[in-house]
Amino acid sequence: MTRNALFALACLAAVGACSNPMKTGRYLIDPPVTGERVPDRIGSAELKDVSLPGYASGDEVAWQSGDGAVRLANRSLWADQPQRAFTQTLARTISDLSGATVIAEPWPLSEPPRKKLEVRVEKALAQADGVYRLSGRYFVADDAAGGSNQARSFDISVPMASDEPAAIAAAQSTAISQLARQIATLGGPGQSIRTSTPRSSSIFSEALPGFEGL
């Protein structure tokens, strides 16, 4: 067999190994169903796309090694785009827990939401100490007169059974479930601010042509 033929066979073998589905795992974000119910303190709210750190927004499952570096598992991938999966799962879990109508943007209903919900994640990491850490801030905006606006933080730690991707996915799912409960109950350190001036309609906020000097 010629050298070129051997090289071609080696390339085919490499491609076959990379394309083998059994060598690549895809993991779901799937919070456990607890059956718990809490009072509805949200009502209807549009959830903006959750802001994630760069290492947590890629396809690869990330973890922190003993030297403190954040590493990516090339053959351990998320089954869905992380930002989309996190946002959709969080909205559904808040709704299931409380009975609120929380829907990820864009809002699909003809009746507009009463509130806007935004979540900014600062850390979403399987740490080297065996704990999955989810921390950041969330904001609930209510434009109605006398509405309650929330600016609160969260810092959730979930022990991991191991540092395997499946255990990381399970811990992250549990952390999202705990975050959903905190948001549903408007819990966590922070403050509540009453809306003093409701947002006016844009048709009344601008002067009409010819009436600027009146």
From TrEMBL:
Write the signal peptide boundaries: 1-19
Q: What keywords are annotated for this sequence in UniProt?
A: Signal
Q: Where are the transmembrane segments?
A: none
- InterPro entries per UniProt: ABC_trans_aux
The protein's matches in PROSITE patterns, at most eight in alphabetical order, are given as: PROKAR_LIPOPROTEIN (PS51257)
Return the annotated region ranges for Disordered. 188-214
Identify the residues that the record assigns to the ABC-type transport auxiliary lipoprotein component domain, covering every copy: 27-184
Q: Which domain of life is it from?
A: Bacteria
What protein is this chain from?
PqiC family protein
What is the organism field in this record?
Answer: Paracoccus cavernae
